[in-house]
Amino acid sequence: MQSPIHTHLRILFLIPIVFVLPNLGFLADFASAQPLPIIFKSAIRSSARTFGLLMPLIILDVICGIGRIAASSRCVWAFARDGAMPGAKGLMKINWKLGISLNSKLLSLIVYILLDLIYFGSSAACNAFSCVEVLTLNASYTTPTAINLLTKRKQVHECKFSLGTFGILCQYCGAWSILTIPLFCMPLRLSIEVVRVNYASVVFAAVCVVSSGWYWARGCKSYTRPPAPGLRRESHGNSLSFVSRIFICFGTEHHDA
Hints:
AA/rel_permease1, transmembrane helix, Amino acid permease (Polyamine transporter TPO5)
């Protein structure tokens, strides 16, 4: 229900912006890669009114930021609980007085602030991290889907809920989003300069190297799967195949033949 509503709202938001767009080369010359304030100011020629038009977006960004911190802290706590992160003992602790995982929430807040501060040092680096946010999100969605398709869905043949042939079609559509990874690694325009180079591919590769290095050095030995209902918690160690571990990491039940 939300997706159709969001789609119509985006169209209503974009239509008036398209009619007041300035020259695209003029927008591309700004190193910040944030065209919306420039579009508004070029249309109404008033800084105060531009700020007023941006206020709903600023408020929305604050609300989304709170949601992101809450969601990321929950992921940090879950990974720490399963022994998949450095400093897991401290990050998995629950503050029972507040009813939250305070340490993981503080870590998420600090990382969020540090990422925002990057903009003051280098707009190119900030844009790279912004693109990597989309890249890593799409990778987390498409990796288990692609593996599931490559293994002919053998890992989930006994799942409790199945869409049958329609499920295969949905997974192919989901795996198609992997094409956005090279798209977000491309530069904004052909005249590439140092300040406008898209370093998203470098940051994305660094994230993959660090994550893979931690997994092989420590994670594969200390990681324990999330406890499923009715099953006791058990450590897998090195007894499972690499593909099985990936499915377990994404919460998919693995059934040996």
